Amino acid sequence: MSRNAKINSLLLLVVAALAVVPLALGLGDHKEEPFTGADGEAEAAITELRPDYEPWFTPLYEPPSGEIESALFSLQAALGAGVLAYYFGLRKGRRQGEARALAAAEATAEAGASGETGAPPAGGDPAGTAAKAGAAAGASAEVTVPSEDAGASGEAGAPPAAGGPAAAETGARKAEPSTGG
Hints:
Elements: H1 3-25, H2 38-49, H3 66-114, H4 128-136, E1 143-145, H5 166-169, E2 173-175
Antiparallel strand pairs: 1-2
């Protein structure tokens, strides 16, 4: 089980315990309405302490029953959870998209640097572009660029073996570093 799965399971267990423990222990059995909201509790406490208290304002809409009030509260909570889930999902998607784009850019750069870009460029020199880019970036001033002929290994485009008889025949040449722009 992964670490995230363990954490999610633990959080689910805690939430279930928060819902079941008050019911199992009988908390609120001594009240007429055991699990009313904080608004009702505050109103009862204020009425006990100061019976002549006048509220500063009245609600804009008073639901006709407690069930409708509870349903509206549940709807409000569901909408809030949906907005939060959308926001966090959007952030995660953007992070994953950036990571994929970065990985693709790195793979393209590595493939370009090693000459594995697929088909050779119009000049027929598959590593020529990489050699020029490496020289422009401050790499070695003298870069050996393999020709299209087979080297000592028999692979097309492979660099010839150093000092072997194929070295002179394959047309290996030295690339001149570019000076920029």
